[in-house]
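*** Residues and shapes ***
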Amino acid sequence: MNNEIVVIRGGGDLATGVVQKFHRAGFNVLILEVQTPTAIRRGAALCEAVYNENAKVEDIKCSRIFSLEETELCWENGVIPLYVDPDGKSIGEIKPSAVIDAIMAKRNSGTVKNMADVTIALGPGFTAGEDVHVVIETQRGNDLGRLIFEGQAKPDTGVPGEIAGESADRVIRAPEAGAIKHNKQIGDIVSKGEIIASINQIEIAAPISGLLRGLIHEGFNVHKRMKIADIDPRTDIDPKAVSDKARCLGGAALEAYFYIKELKI
């Protein structure tokens, strides 16, 4: 293992793919998260450590820390530390070799180019060469994972990528604001029309049949139209495994890091 520190802002399912690649490449990885992550594919998201103090996705273990002094012990034990720091205030103290914004907010939440020698951002909301050194395309298709050195990623269409012939119906949004109550759990096979959850006693039915791959934490106070669940029409998918898209983006981020270091952009 080398001594280089890589800070990854965000611990959702796509960010977890980035964490896995850098961890396996021997970097000391630190995840920075918000106080209440809203990831719905929680089985494949290391940000679950915010709620449970520990999380595991495939071979990657993660523990929530409450002071930066705890990072060294985590790294010595092969564990990814997660620190709640939504504004990235600790980055100046940590002095990482790279900062990767994998928040997937479709906007810049405060990542700037001078945070580290290498700065990378996933998806729209960033301008390569200005906000960060490189932006990675996150839209499914032939350009997924492409490194962008000038300009921006494709704008968010608001429509999920097509999987097994399904697109918009894969994602379920809250019909109104309120606390969510579960009827089903991640990993359940559901039929179209089956009730998966409710908000304020309003029942939420599955729009398609498939595997319930994502579901926001029970009791979470959601806002109207917030993404709360995700159904995959492919019932043989492991909801606790890193996805194909997350692996692609993780590999692209690792490529970007070494490419930028070599070119010294």
